[in-house]
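Record Spindle and kinetochore-associated protein 1, 258 aa.
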Amino acid sequence: MVSVSLNVEKMSELEDISHHIHDRISSLQRMLDLSVVALPHNKIRKLGQELFSLQRLLEELEKCVDRQREQLKHLKELEQSFQKDAENVDHLKDNMPAHMPVKKGPANGKPVLNNNDGAAVQLGQPENVKKSGKNYVREMEFITMPEFDSIPQYMRGRVSYDKLNAAVQSLNTAVTAKYKILHQSAKTLNNHARKLHQRFKDQETKDTKGQYFVVEDDIREFTQMRVDKQFQGILNMLRHCQRLRELRGGGLTRYMLS
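=>
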């Protein structure tokens, strides 16, 4: 709006000068038409003054034109810059990652429990207990593009950036669903959820105290992810990015969030 206003003012200034010059030229033309008659000395001097004044007006007009030309150049540069920014925004919009890395955690000391568990288990009604820190479920952070690029090609194979983060999301789903059950009293759960609750408790050891982990059965229980050879390759990449580590014991491999 400021640029448009300035342009209007400049155009108005040029028009005023142009009209003024035209009037002076018309006046001079009339004086020249009268020059066929002998002019008094004072009239000749007046003609000279008019010519000198006209010259100054023409110089001022040239300066205005130069300013307008410089401003037009500047506006074209701004237009190119805006066009480039618009292209960058369109590129970002068309290439937005499906999974954006976000750090999650309790804010202001208040725990947050995500509701995206997708569990296939019918849970009982939770107890009406006051929320506490034990209800907070930690989740794995998504892989950033620089981290993905740091993974050796032989380890990546055909796994894409989006597919790796989709696996992160599935593991988070399993972790959230598991600990949502664990954070409830067994008395409030149905039969199936109560069996899962007991299984989760049995899988814990002194080394897992205060840690979040899942096993392959949890992944099958709460997600659609296939536990196959490619899944093992994804786990290797997540270990490389320090998102999880393995703890073996009792015939189980526990995938612990780092």
